[in-house]
Amino acid sequence: MSSPQPSSARQILAGRKLVVACVLVVAAAACAAYLSVGGRTGAPAASLIGGPFTLTTGDGGTVTDADMKGEPFLVFFGYTHCPDVCPATLAEISDVLAKMPAKPIKALFITVDPERDTPAIMKDYVSNFDPRIVGLTGDRAAIDKVERAYRVYARKAPQDNGDYTMDHSAIVYLMDSKGRFVEAFNLDRKPEESAKELERRL
Ligand SMILES: [Cu+2]
Questions:
Q1: How far does the centroid of ligand 1 lie from the alpha carbon of residue 72, in Å?
Q2: What's the gap in Å between 125 CA and the centre of ligand 1?
Q3: What is the DSSP string of 138-177?
Q4: Which of 4, 23, 100, 112 is 20 to 30 A removed from 190 (C-alpha atoms)?
């Protein structure tokens, strides 16, 4: 089925004007989002990252986005069976936090594999890292919702032995004290440099 064609030059022109207007609105919104967060990464969709969530801690308690307001925080999505990226990233975050002892900054480690990552398993797993890293899980609907809010990519990759791994995006999100996305946090530098940047934002 094809969409109806504009029947006159005027309609075509009107259509073009609408497209131009739409592009301008989107560009202005992206610009406003960029300016409002002062992001250095230039992420245009900053205001589209983050949002409400309700997740379960290792002790069976609840953490929501509202609980996180008041201090900046980091967010990382992954899963406890991850062979490489997740443990390496959590170790790097721990190294940064170790450079700023007693500072009130938290890092949320949110599972993309809630079927296997129960609260108890998450608790046990994050106990290997800095205690300010909070392991969070939830039911499938809660995880789907937070993945959508943070524009996370995560997909099961079945293995020959019937097991599976998870392909997933591995951005460390730096959120400000109001829960707004600031930038993809750079761990590719000395831990003390990353720590300095976080302290600057406290
Ligand atoms: Cu991983």
A1: 23
A2: 13
A3: --HHHHHHHHHHTT--EEEEE-TTS-EEEEE---EEEE-T
A4: 112
Same domain, 195 and 125: yes
> How many angstroms separate the alpha carbon of residue 77 from the centre of ligand 1?
8
More confident residue, 152 or 9: 152
The answer to whether 61 and 134 are in contact (CB under 8 A) is no
- Domain with 118 in it: what CATH number? 3.40.30.10
pLDDT digits (tens, 9 = 90+) for 72-110: 999 999 999 999 999 999 999 999 999 999 899 999 999
Q: What is the pTM of this model?
A: 0.78
- The answer to whether position 1 is within a domain reads no
CA–centroid distance, residue 175 to ligand 1 (Å): 20
Q: Are residues 101 and 175 in the same domain?
A: yes
Q: Work out how many domains the chain is built from and give that number.
A: 2
Surrounding ion ligand 1 within 5 Å at CB are: 78, 82, 85-86
